[in-house]
Amino acid sequence: MSAAVQGGSRAAPSRRVASRAAAVAYRYGLLGVMAAMIVLFSLLRPAFATYPNALVVLQSVAVVGIVALGVTVSMTTGGFDLSAGACVGAVVMVTALTMVRFNLTGGTAIVAGLLTGLLVAGVNVLLTVVAKVPDLVATLGTLFLFQGLALIVTGGQSVAPGMTVDGAPAPGRYTEGFAWLGGGTIVSVPVPVVAFALLAAAVYVLLNHTRWGRALYAIGGNAEAARLAGIRVARYRALGYAVSGVCAAIAGILLSARLGRGDVGAGDPYLLQSVAAALIGFAVLGANRPNALGTVVGALFIGVMINGLTMLNAPYYAQTFVQGALLVGALVTSYTLRRIR
Fold first, then answer.
1. What confidence score (pLDDT) does residue 112 get?
2. pLDDT, position 168
């Protein structure tokens, strides 16, 4: 009996140590991996740890991060906006058509892009909130709907200045003011990076310091309990998708300005990367829920990894594999280590 007690007393400290280690890994593991990547890439390629390259990384993640912030807000209510990438692509095509095909101003193109984002959000709200279709199925349908619509409107062709329309050159072009959104700077910082920072701050305040944010999280935790507490669940779920649509529209406008043309499928890569950034954000500081700070860190995590692998001349398919491995690792950190702790 005494031997069993002594064995149990020796095992207790080891369990406490393991629990503390799991808690530290749960809260700071992702940040530690990111810091290790920065140190490793800096040692292997000294040019990585320079201010110009830092701006390159920030600019490369700005569009992804903006889309991911919108996806994050939709996830707070228990939803999941799979149409975000298609929304970005549709906005790119709409803004290009507005200026190149119809010869209208850059301001008009911005308004048209924002309205397109709200249209996508409206379709999602009709399907999920009104028709009660499950979010994943509904937003997947919206994804295909607007991908196909963008192809139909443009005939499956890219929209670029000088393109032929009805046998004659297109009358319009990208305006200088609109192009500045993609290539201009504010105090030597690229405009997309500034927009990303401002939107990240706005989403952080919305989710953490307003009653709307508390209501969104309450719905995501238990929609029925939130309804019984007097929260208008349908309205807040609609708000989540509206914010996601506007964020995707802003990202599409910035991407269109940077490309200087409307490429078919321009928004396709941004769905998986934005979802990865939002999910990786679950593991930041042990949040275990959608949050703006975690999403920003997740976007930077992906940007640092891709930039470093590119500087090391790693093939593109290896980058995709590493992204998937890091996402799996973040999910394990978020869910498995939480239970161990």
1. 97
2. 83
3-state secondary structure of 162: coil
Question: What is the spatial distance between Cα 261 and Cα 255, in angstroms, rounded to a whole number?
Answer: 9
Do the strands 168-169 and 185-186 form a parallel or antiparallel pair, or are they unpaired? Answer: unpaired
Q: How many CB atoms lie within 10 A of CB 135?
A: 22
Task: Enumerate the H helices of 77-175 as residue ranges.
Answer: 84-96, 106-125, 135-154
CB 262 within 8 A of CB 92: yes
- Taking the CA atoms of 21, 23, 25 and 31 in sequence, report the sign of the dihedral they define: negative
Mean pLDDT over the full length of the chain: 89
Measured distance CA(171)–CA(179) in Å, rounded: 17
What secondary structure does DSSP assign to 2-15, as a single string?
HHHHHHHHHHHHHH
What number of CA atoms fall less than 13 Å from residue 218's CA on the CB side?
18
* Nearest by Cα to 86 from 152, 156, 144: 144
Size (the chain), residues: 341
CA–CA distances in Å: residue 341 to residues 17, 25, 233, 279, 336 = 11, 10, 33, 20, 9
Q: Which two tokens stand for residue 57?
A: 């990384």
Give me the pLDDT at residue 336, please. Answer: 67
Q: Is the pLDDT of residue 126 over 80?
A: yes
List, for residues 226-278, the tens digit of each pLDDT value: 999 999 999 999 999 999 999 999 999 999 999 999 988 899 889 988 998 99
C-beta atoms surrounding 76 within 10 Å? 27
Closest CA to 200 of 110, 66, 71: 66
Structure token pair of residue 249 = 């529209």
Contact 29, 288 (CB under 8 A): no
Query: Residue 1's CB: how many other CB atoms inside 10 A?
Result: 5
**What is residue 7's predicted lDDT score, i.e. its pLDDT?**
54
